[in-house]
Amino acid sequence: MNGKQELLRDIPRVDELAEHNALETLSRHEALRAVRSVLEALRGDILAGKTAALPDTDALAARALSRAERDSRPGLRRVVNLTGVILHTNLGRAPL
Predict the structure, then answer these.
(1) Where are the extended beta strands (E) located within 1-96?
(2) CA angle, corner 60, sides to 54 and 64, nearest 5?
(3) Which of 1-15, 23-37, 55-69 comes out lowest in average pLDDT?
(4) Which residue among 11, 38, 70, 89 is least enclosed by CB atoms within 10 Å?
(5) Apex CA 12: angle with CA 7 and CA 16, to 5°?
(6) With contact defined as beta carbons under 8 Å apart, do 38 and 67 qualify?
Protein backbone atom coordinates (compact mmCIF):
# COMPACT_ATOMS: atom_id res chain seq x y z
CA MET A 1 0.00 0.00 0.00
CA ASN A 2 1.11 3.57 -0.67
CA GLY A 3 2.84 5.40 2.21
CA LYS A 4 0.47 8.35 1.90
CA GLN A 5 -2.55 6.09 2.16
CA GLU A 6 -1.14 4.44 5.26
CA LEU A 7 -0.58 7.82 6.89
CA LEU A 8 -4.10 8.94 5.99
CA ARG A 9 -5.53 5.73 7.43
CA ASP A 10 -3.60 6.20 10.70
CA ILE A 11 -4.90 9.73 11.37
CA PRO A 12 -6.83 9.68 14.67
CA ARG A 13 -10.60 10.06 14.63
CA VAL A 14 -12.02 13.53 15.21
CA ASP A 15 -14.06 12.58 18.28
CA GLU A 16 -11.10 10.78 19.90
CA LEU A 17 -8.83 13.76 19.45
CA ALA A 18 -11.53 16.20 20.61
CA GLU A 19 -11.71 14.33 23.93
CA HIS A 20 -7.97 14.77 24.59
CA ASN A 21 -7.07 16.19 28.01
CA ALA A 22 -5.38 19.23 26.46
CA LEU A 23 -8.71 20.34 24.98
CA GLU A 24 -10.82 20.04 28.13
CA THR A 25 -10.92 23.83 28.59
CA LEU A 26 -12.78 24.23 25.29
CA SER A 27 -16.45 23.64 24.67
CA ARG A 28 -17.31 20.56 22.64
CA HIS A 29 -18.17 22.70 19.61
CA GLU A 30 -14.90 24.66 19.78
CA ALA A 31 -12.84 21.49 20.22
CA LEU A 32 -14.50 19.74 17.28
CA ARG A 33 -14.07 22.75 15.01
CA ALA A 34 -10.38 23.13 15.92
CA VAL A 35 -9.66 19.41 15.58
CA ARG A 36 -11.38 19.23 12.19
CA SER A 37 -9.35 22.19 10.98
CA VAL A 38 -6.05 20.71 12.19
CA LEU A 39 -6.79 17.28 10.71
CA GLU A 40 -7.82 18.82 7.39
CA ALA A 41 -4.51 20.70 7.23
CA LEU A 42 -2.66 17.50 8.15
CA ARG A 43 -4.41 15.57 5.37
CA GLY A 44 -3.46 18.30 2.90
CA ASP A 45 0.17 18.17 4.03
CA ILE A 46 0.25 14.38 3.67
CA LEU A 47 -1.25 14.49 0.18
CA ALA A 48 1.17 17.25 -0.86
CA GLY A 49 4.11 15.22 0.43
CA LYS A 50 5.06 17.76 3.10
CA THR A 51 4.60 15.29 5.97
CA ALA A 52 6.41 11.96 6.06
CA ALA A 53 5.41 10.91 9.58
CA LEU A 54 2.27 11.35 11.61
CA PRO A 55 2.58 13.58 14.72
CA ASP A 56 1.50 12.01 18.00
CA THR A 57 -1.90 12.80 19.49
CA ASP A 58 -0.42 15.19 22.07
CA ALA A 59 1.10 17.31 19.31
CA LEU A 60 -2.14 17.28 17.33
CA ALA A 61 -4.11 18.28 20.43
CA ALA A 62 -1.66 21.13 21.08
CA ARG A 63 -2.13 22.32 17.49
CA ALA A 64 -5.91 22.18 17.92
CA LEU A 65 -5.73 24.16 21.16
CA SER A 66 -3.53 26.77 19.50
CA ARG A 67 -5.95 26.97 16.57
CA ALA A 68 -8.95 27.40 18.90
CA GLU A 69 -7.19 30.15 20.86
CA ARG A 70 -6.23 31.94 17.64
CA ASP A 71 -9.77 31.69 16.29
CA SER A 72 -11.27 33.07 19.51
CA ARG A 73 -9.18 36.26 19.43
CA PRO A 74 -10.98 39.27 18.04
CA GLY A 75 -9.83 40.28 14.60
CA LEU A 76 -9.98 43.47 12.62
CA ARG A 77 -13.40 44.94 12.00
CA ARG A 78 -14.60 47.66 9.70
CA VAL A 79 -15.71 50.76 11.54
CA VAL A 80 -17.15 54.10 10.55
CA ASN A 81 -15.28 57.06 11.94
CA LEU A 82 -17.95 59.45 13.22
CA THR A 83 -15.74 61.56 15.46
CA GLY A 84 -15.54 64.52 13.11
CA VAL A 85 -17.14 67.93 13.46
CA ILE A 86 -20.92 67.64 13.55
CA LEU A 87 -22.05 71.20 14.30
CA HIS A 88 -21.04 74.30 12.41
CA THR A 89 -21.96 77.84 13.41
CA ASN A 90 -20.71 81.20 12.24
CA LEU A 91 -18.67 81.44 15.43
CA GLY A 92 -16.73 78.22 14.90
CA ARG A 93 -17.03 74.53 14.99
CA ALA A 94 -18.04 72.42 17.92
CA PRO A 95 -16.40 69.01 18.01
CA LEU A 96 -18.43 66.27 19.60
Answers:
(1) 85-89, 92-95
(2) 150
(3) 1-15
(4) 89
(5) 180
(6) yes
